[in-house]
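[agent] plan:
  1. take the single chain provided in the ticket
  2. run structure prediction with default settings
  3. attach structure tokens to the ticket
  4. add a short note for the reviewer (M.T.)
[agent] executing step 1
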Amino acid sequence: MKNKILKGALLSWTLLFVIACNPKKVNLSTDSEVDSEKIKAEIVAIEAKMADMYNLRSAASEEYYAEDAISFSQNRPPLVGKFAIDKSLKEDLTYFDKGDKISFSANEIFPSNDGEQVVEIGSYKVVDSTKNTIFRGNYMSFFVKRDGKYVCIRDMGASDMPEPSKK
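[agent] step 2 finished; step 3 output follows
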């Protein structure tokens, strides 16, 4: 009898150990699926509005940046806050000739599982009035959804043009 009890206890402990050590399957899906194409369309629209702002020489980041945004660019310290970013945009526009046009391309987007955050990897190009490329580069932007719309809270850009030679 003792032997049966001992075997039963051993079998119970073994089963308990196997069950406890078996990894749980985690369901990473959410109740509502994120529509990546819809999100990409929203980001593309935001980028088009930003390009229009540049091309119309209207230096206000209006709906693109959040108040607490930080923007990183080459050869300058980070721009902290919408006011500093707007000031820099105004300075950048002084280098834009009348016929220059900028365009942005959202090459990839990576939305969070709930769609509340999006990382965008894109490229930009500036052409002159004859459509010759005068600047081009790449950027990453991090958007969060606030009050039902995406705003950029972090971005960084880098030119892929050769650095001008120094004399």
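[agent] step 4 note for reviewer: Residues 6-20, 24-31 have pLDDT under 50 and may be disordered.
[agent] ticket updated
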